[in-house]
Design goal:
alpha+beta; 420 residues; Chorismate synthase, AroC fold; 4-stranded antiparallel β-sheet; binds ligand EPS; 5-stranded antiparallel β-sheet
C-alpha cells in the first residue's frame, strides 16, 4: 500500500514529506526530486517569497546509494524564510511570553493590536492575523480550532505545503517513468484569457511549457496573460485559471468499476480538489459531455494490433479522457483543473476583525498574484501519487524487479487479447 503525508508550516523551520510503500530498487537521487521542486517554484505572477526559497530536499530515510530500500522515504525541505520568522513562528515561548503567561504584565505591543486574545489568557504574537480574508481558510479554521490568531490556520493552509507533496510525487513519477508513463501539464486559461491547444501537442509538453513563464503552449496568449497579470497587480487584485494535465503510457486496467472508492476518476478528482484554491476538475470532455448527445460523446473503438497497452484496440477519439467505468483505457488520461484567484488581495476585501468584532479591511500579507503555472506542476504531482498507488495495487511488488515481472506478465496477457 502506498501512502504519504506531509507536515510543516509555511514560515516554520521546514517541511516534511513521508512516502511509504515504494518498492525497493528504484533508482532515486535528490536531483530527481529537486528538479520537480524547481518546476513548482516558477511562473510569472509569483510573489517575492519565491526569490527567497530555493527548495531542495534532504533524504532522511528510505534511500541508500541512489536506490530506494523499501522503507518509508522521509524528505526534509528547509524554509529559508524561517530565519525571518523565528520570533513569530517559534514553537516555544519567548521570555516576554513566558513572563506574561506567569502573570507579569506585558510590555510590547503587537503589529495588529496590543490586546490579549479574547479569552484573556494569551497575548497575540507579533503579526497576528485577525482581519480574516474572504475566501481563505482563516475564519472557518480559526472558529473550528478555537484559535484567536488566524496565523495558526493560514500557515498550514498556505500552498507552501504543496512543496512536500511535489517531493513525494517526484518519487512516484520516477517509478511510473520506469514503466514508460509520462505526466505533463500546461496552462490553458488564465484570468479570462484562453490559450490555444496546439494539435498535435509537442512530443515533450513539459519541456515546451517549462520554457514559458506562464507554462502555456500558446505564445500569443502568454503575452496577453503577462499583460493581464501586470494590470491586475497594479489594481491589488489576483487571478485564477485552468491547467490541462495529460498522462500517457498507462496500461488499460488501473482503478476499478467494482466499488465507489476504487474508481480512478473519483480518486483523481478528489486528489485534484485537495490542491489549495482548486474549485473544479473535469475528466475528458467534462461538463461539455453533459450538453452533447451520446453519439457525440462516446469514443468509437476499432482493432489496432500491437497496441498492448490498450488491449490491441484504439479509440477514434478520446473524449472520455482515458477513463471508462473508473478504469484506465490505455488512451491518454486528460484532466482539466480549475483554480480560483488567490484570496490574499493587496486591495483587501471587506471582512471583520475577529478581535474587535468590527468591520475591517482584510489583512494584506505578501502573496502571489497568481499561482496557476505552479498549480499545473502540483496537479501533475497529485496525478502521479494517485496513479502510482493504483499501479502498485495492480502490480504490487516489494522490489522494482518484482513489480516489473508482474507488469510484463500483464502486458503479455494483454498482447494475447483481441488480435483483429
Ligand atoms: C502563500 C503566500 C506566499 C506564497 C506561498 C503561499 O508566501 P509568503 O506569505 O511567504 O510570501 O509565495 O507560496 C509558497 C511559499 C510556495 O512555496 O508556494 C499563501 O499564503 O498561501
Amino acid at each position: 500500500m502506498l501512502r504519504f503525508t506531509t507536515a510543516g508550516e509555511s514560515h516554520g523551520p521546514a517541511l516534511v514529506s513521508i512516502l511509504e510503500g515504494m518498492p525497493a530498487g528504484l533508482p532515486l537521487l535528490a536531483d530527481h526530486v529537486n528538479a520537480e521542486l524547481a518546476r513548482r517554484q516558477q511562473g510569472y505572477g509569483r510573489g517575492r517569497r519565491m526569490q527567497i526559497e530555493k527548495d531542495a530536499i534532504e533524504f532522511l530515510s528510505g534511500v541508500r546509494a541512489g536506490e530506494t530500500i523499501g522503507s518509508p522515504i522521509a524528505m526534509l525541505i528547509h524554509n529559508r524564510d524561517w530565519q525571518n520568522w523565528q520570533e513569530i513562528m517559534n514553537a516555544s515561548l519567548s521570555e516576554e511570553e513566558a513572563a506574561a503567561a506567569s502573570g507579569v504584565p506585558l510590555g510590547a505591543a503587537t503589529d495588529e493590536s496590543s490586546a490579549r486574545s479574547t479569552d484573556g489568557s494569551r497575548p497575540l504574537r507579533k503579526r497576528a492575523v485577525t482581519r480574516v480574508r474572504p475566501g481563505h481558510a482563516d475564519l472557518s479554521g480559526l472558529l473550528k480550532y478555537a484559535r484567536t490568531d488566524a496565523r495558526d490556520i493560514l500557515e498550514r493552509a498556505s500552498a507552501r505545503e504543496t512543496t512536500a507533496r511535489v517531493a513525494a510525487a517526484a518519487v512516484c513519477k520516477r517509478l511510473l517513468a520506469e514503466f514508460g508513463v509520462r505526466i505533463a501539464s500546461h496552462v490553458v486559461h488564465l484570468g479570462g484569457i484562453d490559450a490555444r491547444r496546439p494539435e498535435p501537442l509537442p512530443n515533450d509538453v513539459n519541456a515546451t511549457a517549462d520554457a514559458s513563464p506562464l507554462r502555456t503552449l500558446d505564445q500569443d496568449a502568454e503575452q496577453a496573460m503577462i499583460a493581464k497579470i501586470d494590470t491586475v497587480k497594479r489594481e491589488g487584485n489576483t487571478l485564477g485559471g485552468i491547467c490541462e494535465v495529460i498522462c500517457d503510457g498507462l496500461p488499460v486496467g488501473l482503478g476499478s468499476h467494482v466499488s465507489w472508492d476504487r474508481k480512478l476518476d473519483a480518486r483523481l478528482a478528489g486528489a485534484m480538489m485537495s490542491i489549495p484554491a482548486v474549485k473544479a476538475v473535469e475528466i475528458g470532455l467534462g461538463f461539455e459531455a453533459s450538453r452533447r448527445t451520446g453519439a457525440e460523446v462516446h469514443d468509437e473503438i476499432e482493432p489496432s494490433p500491437n497496441r498492448p497497452l490498450t488491449g490491441n484496440v484504439r479509440r477514434r477519439t478520446n473524449r472520455a479522457g482515458g477513463l471508462e467505468g473508473g478504469i484506465t483505457t490505455g488512451e491518454p488520461l486528460v484532466l482539466h483543473i480549475g483554480m480560483k484567484p488567490i484570496s490574499t488581495l493587496m486591495r483587501p476585501l471587506a471582512t471583520i476583525d475577529v478581535h474587535t468584532g468590527q468591520p475591517a479591511a482584510a489583512v494584506a500579507e505578501r502573496s502571489d498574484i497568481t499561482a496557476v503555472p505552479a498549480m499545473g506542476v502540483i496537479a501533475e504531482g497529485m496525478a502521479a501519487l494517485v496513479l502510482a498507488e493504483a499501479f502498485l495495487e495492480k502490480f504490487g511488488g516489494d522490489s522494482l524487479a518484482e513489480t516489473r515481472r508482474n507488469y510484463d506478465g500483464y502486458l503479455s496477457y494483454l498482447q494475447s487479447r483481441i488480435s483483429g
